[in-house]
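Contributing: when you submit paired examples, paste them exactly as shown. First protein:
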Amino acid sequence: MQQHFDAMPPGTANHVPLSPVSFLTRAATVHGDRLAVIQGETRRTWAEVGDRIRRVAGGLAAQGIGQGDTVTVIAPNCPELFELHFAVPMAGGVLSALNTRLEAETIAYIIDHSDSALVIAGTGQLSLIQAALDLAARSPKVIEVSLPDAKPQGPSYADLLESAPFCGDGLPVDEWQALALNYTSGTSGRPKGVVYHHRGAYLMALGTVAAWSMPEVPVYMSVVPMFHCNGWGHSWMMAVLGGTMVFPDSTAPEDLFAAIRVHGVTHFGAAPIVLQMLAESPAAPTQPLSPPLKVMTAGAPPPPAILERMAALGMDIMHVYGLTESYGHISQCLPRDAWDVLDPATQAAHRARQGVSLPMVQAVTVLDRDTGEPVPWDGETQGEIAIRGNTLMKGYYKDPDATAQVMQDGWFWSGDGAVVHPDGYIQIRDRLKDVIISGGENVSSVEVEAVLYRHPDVQTAAVIARPHPKWGEAPCAFVELRPGAEADEEAIIAFCRQHLAGFKTPKSVIFDQIPKTATGKVQKFELRNRLMQKG
């Protein structure tokens, strides 16, 4: 009988490539009169946004953008960046949204490595892009996203909007086709290009709707930078529901609380550092928000004390875990009914775990790397978090060796050490990579060390994470000076600031002998012990 089932191949009627672009068509028709975006005085419905996106996609096609062409975008969260999350893949291109806090040297590397065919930049990032292009081998055209009522300095986003609308449904030929290219710092010190496919983005959006129990018409405040895993896929998610994206004036606590109050925000996502700033802000409401505001947090394990304070403000925090390679969140600390009877501090401690897999993920588990077997659920035995599912990257762009290294034995190996509690909930114990997470941003210790070694007075350098009251973690540099050198902490930090983005720059410098193995390898665990002793 099996042969009869096999003789039923898929066709165009019953097998359509999965892509988040498809969400836009439905939102523009079914929810056409609903507000899609709010920024300042700007209000646009889904019908209006749908038309703009098709025109921008048409403009990109007119610029020669087609299947597999990388479009680099560097701009703060704004309606235009939201539209580009649909317009670029609709035209067949690959969206590469860059961190606005990167320095020109790294941006130049990414432009070259990504084979960028076009750059779209906010007015505030034009000088940075020009500095990067002066260093880059490639010279793609630059299109400006100018501020409202401002005159652009050259080709502009407004010019794209004058184009004829894109024809067709904008779906890929193959759902495995590249959709986005996100750069993440690795232990090699050079950013790695993480390639997303249409299928993964589609399933991430739908899975988040289910995991977050989204209401019919959510009002989502855009806080998560859209260069972080494409804003955790939340732009595509909002099109599923025809909800409203609110772009606050800034991420300052007073502006976030104002947007929540004025626009009736129901959901937002943010790194723990943002939650801490909200909890400590004088602008925080004196009475708990009602109904509770749904908040997703990720980027680093949130301190339980912060979760407790946010709960007191009327914010229902869902802690999630993931990586750039997994499109963002792939596990959630799903609350259990049994936790309701626990005291607030204990509840917060439970909510700080990395939890269980999200609906669209096949498996998130903790394995013994040597045996490949699951670790016991005892909350003590440490293994490595391993992931399997459709929301995993295609691989690292132009780096098959690095791809093969993390994709082994049918699993993606995260590099994060964790335990599993008796209730099946995962909790990270230690990072297996020397990556520092500062304010939700990944910082490669190797990259910072490379800059330190460029200082003429530095003989040996090593960088590790140090607890920081504001950023959670910050780079701490251990430095051995050359004989006769007299550089001090201020001079070392100032030098690094000339060559690194602010969040990568060490916040402290310790002058000391750096312990090494017989083969000359730095013993970073000894440096961590020294920091613990210093407090």
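Second protein:
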Amino acid sequence: MCGIAGVLGGGPEAEAQAAAMIEKIKHRGPNGVRIERVGDAVLAHARLSIIDLEGGWQPLHAAGSTVIGNGEIYNYLELIEEHGLECATGSDFEPLLHLYAREGEKAFARLRGMYAFCLIGGDGRTWLVRDPFGIKPLYYEYTASSVVFASEARAFIDTPLASPAVDPWCAEELLSLGYGHVFGDIRLRAQKFSPGEVSELLNSPGNANDGGCKPYLQCVYSATTFNTWTAERPRLVLDLVDQQRLIRWEDKHRTDEPIDALDALLEDSVRMHQRSDVPYGLFLSGGIDSAAIATLMARLNERPVTAYTCGFDAPGARDERAAAERVARALNLDWRETTFGEEDFWRILPQVAWALDDPTTDYAILPTWKLAEAAKDTLTVILTGEGGDELFGGYGRYRRALRPKLLGGRPAEPQVDAPFLKDGGAGALDRWREAATPPPGLTRLQQAQWADIATWLPGDLLLKLDRCLMAHGLEGRTPFLDREVAAFAFNLPDRLKIRGRHGKWILRKWLERHCPAADPWGRKQGFTVPVAAWIAPRAPDLAPAMASHEGLAQVCDMEVVHTIFARDGGEKHRWPLLFYAVWWNIHVGGMEPADALAAVLPNR
């Protein structure tokens, strides 16, 4: 896990530009920074050492090519063995360079992992690649003579690429959906690589006025747009229209067969996700996804696995610590709990707003940050359960989507409730529907799953995990989003995902067998953070600043904003407005985090 930045095709100023960019994201790589010129490119890498602590420094050179990467290629040992590779280091990225020398871009389809990388090949071709689910971030932009890229949008701050304003459309999406546009940054002109995107750097013909050729990126494949390789269609998990990859279980098969297959796939994924030369553990909630990961980790480790759980110190809060402790005791985990209270809320809010340069208003960012704080002195690698709901059909909205309309059925799309926005959020929902349009040939359940995998997962859950953990020098890993597990889970028949009132049916059956202490058939209590209760006592003090906030005024009806904070009845709308105001003060107003909160709550 690292931070990367680079200038492709730049002139003499490229070294300084790359150095300035990596400086802004060096929190992603606390073990050190290296910058190199490779031909016409300058590559910068801030390293968080995980695998091959001595020999894994980047830029990495082998087989005539160079790479800098953020993330992990989990199947690097298998690639070495299967292809008879001779590597000089233990780095998980070196096998990619040897495979590229043999088969070019086809090598990218062999990777199992989370990654964003720039590869400069010995064949003179340059590639920028992001993993199929968008677990690791990657941003880019054009200058007059180069393409620049980085792991975080903040790397472009104080450069000619930066814009002091917010895109109103993206702000509306953030305030109505909970996250901004999946493929564009809310504040800068920088663009995000889409999940699974593979782009090649090319040069366009110049003319007498612009001084010659200009580099640009040509996308040859994207997991969500179903473009086609110029050479060979890759094996990526979101390539769902390839019917030959579907895994079907007919009624004649015994139920145990898919459960046994799931057990083997999950164990293999967790084993790979544990590959690390530094301490690893997990975040354990009271849900079945993290309980499943914990069960496999306990099976695969001789010593007790370290697990962290966050509970809430607030009246009426839904606290999962009791369920997590029950699982921890059954699995003999080294279980550690941390508490999140009102003081934590006001302390952490501006810190999280700083870390989320590309924001989400998902209140789960708060306990994720607190857990990272608690774990950072003990662990470096954290396994989590992200992806379980999307792949196995866990959300209640999936079950509603399968019901007839007369029985309360409705599409599994965001339920926008943003009366404070000038257009009520209708425009944001329309744009979401466009981005979430699935390919043909999927069931109604798969269509809903695909929409979340294309939007909500990279735009909210994975972004939250990346920024909150990287701010503390931690690497987050998601075993459910392994290529093999995901292909199996997504393509299971609907009846193995949803039965009656239970989603994730097959995962519950598996857990019933391997960790009954997780109470897999218990009623899910839902995950909430009591932000409304913590904001309420200070709402009258917040009202004046919120009702006159420059950033909110761009997209909101300010009379409604004032009413939300000044009177009872608007409690559920206060959190996204407060978070956005503090975020705007930092990333547009240029304030320090503590000052950003004081500007809206001066008497705190």
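If you have annotations for the second protein, write them as plain sentences, like these:
The chain has three domains: 2-162+197-221, 244-518, 531-598.
Residues 226-253 have pLDDT under 50 and may be disordered.
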